[in-house]
């Protein structure tokens, strides 16, 4: 058994004929902020439910801090969990809910709880039925962080939060990792993952297709070029090495794998007025794993639509 905070071994879940997760082998060390990425149906939330033992695996095993997830009492003592869609007792106030959840856990840092309430700008005296989605999310975040658990399982944790509170969440996440806590962050907000995560896993159709640091992902050989022209942009789709072409207001954004020489030769004779290169963002890397001809035609906004699911 390793010293991992989260470990899975051939973890599989099928619902009838549908395979939601297939043979997941994953290891997340203690003190890491780990990103878990994938669109609807990729298996993200299924994985988290398996780690929480809310559903049972078809096969395979999982451990939290070395404890089998099937040992619910022992495993849940080490966990904090924030779902993407929070339901609260409508007749209770925020503080009554936090007090109740704190008693269930048996270990609350009350000074830290009060600090969290202040930093997230939560009014704990209001009844839950009056809370907006963002405020319900704040209650869940306070409840998860206030116990200072070894592992935080966060499934779309910033749903409904405004940008200021998203920044505060990121600060809390970094602080937790600095204190040795492990953060498992499932999110469709790629900028958020890029800002706080050290490594990411990418799921596709229930299978793990990549686990790497952001630096390693960017070093896989792709470069992004933004090219502007004094006339119509040329057709670059058939140029060797070009993996994607997206329209811009005054030109195109081209992703190239390998040598850029064929692309640069094509651009030179096409009325090029400006060329800028940069490393691919996490969003561009992520989309490379999901790119299809139909998706390319739809454009990046359509490809990202609905990317917050299971």
TrEMBL record:
UniProt keyword ATP-binding present: yes
The organism's place on the tree of life at top rank: Bacteria
GO terms of molecular function: ATP binding
InterPro entries registered for this protein in UniProt: AAA+_ATPase, ABC_transporter-like_ATP-bd, ABC_transporter-like_CS, ABC_transporter_ATP-binding, P-loop_NTPase
SMART domains in the cross-refs: AAA (SM00382)
Gene3D superfamilies: P-loop containing nucleotide triphosphate hydrolases (3.40.50.300)
Membrane topology value: Peripheral membrane protein
Subcellular location: Cell membrane
Keywords carried by this UniProt record: Antibiotic resistance, ATP-binding, Nucleotide-binding, Transport
ABC transporter domain ranges (all copies): 6-230
UniProt record similarity statement: Belongs to the ABC transporter superfamily.
Protein known as: ABC transporter ATP-binding protein
Organism of origin: Actinocorallia aurantiaca
